[in-house]
Amino acid sequence: MGPFQITGAAVVDGSGRDPVDVDVAIDDGCIAQSGASGAPGERLDAGGLTMTPGLIDAHVHLGLSSPIQPQFSFRISAAEIAADIFATAGATLDAGFTTVRDTGGIDGGVVTTIAKGKVRGPRVLSCGPVQCQTGGHGYYGAEWEPTELWSSHHVPGLCALSMMSGNADELRRNVREAFRRGASFLKLCVTGGVVGAHDRLTDTQFTVDEIAVAVQEATARGTYVTAHAHNNEGIRNAVEAGVRCIEHGTDLDESTATLMAAREVALVPTFAVVEQLLHDTAGAGLGESTRDRVLGVRERMTEALAVAKAAGVRIGLGSDLIGPAQDRRGEELTLRAKLETPMEALVAATKTNAEILGLSERVGVIAPGMQADLVLWNGNPLEDPELFADPANAVLVVQAGRVVKDLR
Questions:
Q1: What is the CA radius of gyration of the chain?
Q2: How far from 264 is each of 26, 229, 257, CA to CA, in Å?
Q3: Which residues, 6 or more positions from 319, have their beta carbon under 8 angstroms from its beta carbon?
Q4: Distance CA 127, CA 270 (A)
Q5: CA distance 325 to 119
Q6: Is 376 helix (H, G, I), strand (E, B) or coil?
Q7: Cα–Cα distance for residue pair 195/136, rounded to 1 Å
Q8: CB atoms < 10 A from the CB of 261, how many?
Q9: pLDDT tens-digit profile of 332-359?
Q10: Could you tell me the CA-to-CA distances from 292 to 195, 197, 257, 288, 311 in Å, in that order?
Q11: Nearest to 61 by CA among 247, 288, 249, 278
Q12: Cα separation of 243 and 167, whole Å?
């Protein structure tokens, strides 16, 4: 669409500064000016609404929009899996998230299809399949199934959960394959996980030298490695090997947090998935054993957030939702607002996440020259952060200067 101007909204620019009542002009997909009236084009009256940057979720699984076990056991058709993925992508946009980092589950075709505008969805950065240790977290095949058959569970161009490596050479081959298939960064599982089949949260996976191989390959391509890590030993192994980000960080201690801050390693806690698995394990397509694993994680992850914050670690925000129920992605901000402040939660989901994703020169704040990714909220989520959790409260969503949702 041509140039237009949004007037009358209280603008929260994502930097952490207090809201201001200014008009925002948009032209050629970017913010042309802020605070000046009389710009050319249509005027959209946003009186009584609150404007924020488009939200960013740094930990999503669009490819796990169907129940995991049936999906990777050939009990759901590729057509239904695709329908679930694209429905979740559209719901993500409708919730106010204009950018996401997919941390495992989709193959490159999904990213391309959304980018071409053939289906509605956010801007997607993807690691492709997660890199996992043989028999470790991310493997959901039967115990009797040979490991080499696991990749046959992938649907090329659509879903690809994980690749198994038994040593450094296999890992190097697999990360190169992930890049060949379009990955823009890498993700390794270096500990067990909550949604696991053959591992425990206390397990550490991959050695420091093995993790460093992935870091070397990512660095050679000008990108980075993030690591799924719950226990402190696995977190420290990943940091010492050179990863740039830690996902979850449940049992992070003070000394490792200090090391993370010194090496500028970010942390992305994930609270929404914990709530999801505690309250509706079956809805995610998982058994009660998964719920047993998650007991205690919420409290320890809360403690880790405080430890990381005290150490000066850069802290982003991710929902990690799995299964079909991914429409309330903004609940991650609501939960974080209870542990910090609503403004801190918003900054984590905008400016900080843009920095972690390497997109800070394009998105994350409302400022002239930035891409026009904007959300207008029905009310003030800084006063009532529960507004973030309900997609209906995101009454207008603009992505790269194009209105993609309008409920006004």
A1: 20
A2: 34, 17, 10
A3: 57, 59, 60, 270, 272, 273, 326, 329, 331, 332
A4: 18
A5: 19
A6: strand
A7: 12
A8: 17
A9: 999 999 999 999 999 999 999 999 999 9
A10: 10, 13, 27, 6, 31
A11: 247
A12: 18
Encoded tokens for 313:
């670690």
Q: How far apart are CA 96 and CA 399, in angstroms?
A: 10
Whether the pLDDT of residue 194 is over 90: the answer is no
Q: Are 40 and 1 in contact (CB under 8 A)?
A: no
Single-letter amino acid, residue 332: E
Amino acid present at 283: G
DSSP state of 18: P
Amino acid in position 64: L
Whether 221 has a pLDDT exceeding 80, the answer reads yes
- In the numeric block, the tokens 């010194």 are attached to 262
Q: Are 248 and 274 in contact (CB under 8 A)?
A: no
pLDDT in tens, 25-35: 999 999 997 76
C-alpha 272 chain-centroid distance: 11
Q: Is the overall model pTM greater than 0.85, yes or no?
A: yes
